[in-house]
Fold:
Amino acid sequence: MDEVAKPIVKIQNLRKVFRVGFWGRRVMAVDGVSLEVQRGEVFGFLGPNGAGKTTTIKMLMGLIYPTEGTASLFGRPIGDPSGKAKVGFLPESPYFYDYLTSREFLRFYGHFFGLLGTALDKRIDELLSLVGMTHACDLQLRKFSKGMLQRVGIAQALINDPELVILDEPMSGLDPIGRKEVRDLILRLKESGKTVMFSSHILHDAELLCDRVAMIMKGKLVACGHVSELIAGDTTHEVEMVIDRLLPEALERIKPLAGKVVLQGERVMVVLSSQQAVDQALEVIRSAKAKLVALTPHKASLEDLFIREAKGIQSAVGARVS
Structure:
């Protein structure tokens, strides 16, 4: 197989069992996960908190050992240093010595990869510019916001110019501005030719960013594939209309057609679930000489898939208990 066509990350039947409590009760954290990450893509590893995302990534990075199964980076076993040398990693809850400035912090990590002198200084300047932190290069990390720390953490993950960047929950705890900044960074990494794998429970961000996703729940992989395939993007489930200057008698004619009607001051928002209902509502609007402000089709999303899979798992667990 051509090197470019080979998966950068390959996980086969990976399992991790922890022993917890005084009696050493077995807890299956990851249960038979298999997936591949291809070169040049943004791959989302999705699931609720406690699903097994971080445990899987820790095994991939060699921080903990799998109970069963295998994993490889660039075709080499996860314990091989030559594979790890091509990886940049930002853990879920990194600890930074916060009396360092961002420049000192990056210099410290650069030394791990043998970067010295002017080559290291140039690399630090490039990364601070990339993550938008040049203005804070001499500011101590203890004065950074959560979003700023995430950005300098991503810069740390890039210090060795890796081919693969693995980010564990990079948007967790960020405000909307911080999340957008990290999303923009991930897109810039893809544009520069990097492969990015990140875990998240924020489904909207993954839908915006990812070429492919894998969804894990209670340690099991429940879905994996291209986003458009998983969410059946051509299927419209509902249509939302916002109408202005709709007279009360016209509203009464629309109400039987709508699944939801919400009054928004002088405007009305209605949700319709069929094309026939949409056509009839539009006819009422025209005849009443009201103004259609917006018509928004709502298509299937990763959130719909997530909820469907979660309900399926809950039903299966409930059936076993009963």
Notes: The chain has two domains: 9-230, 236-299. Residues 100 and 167 are 22 Å apart (CA to CA).
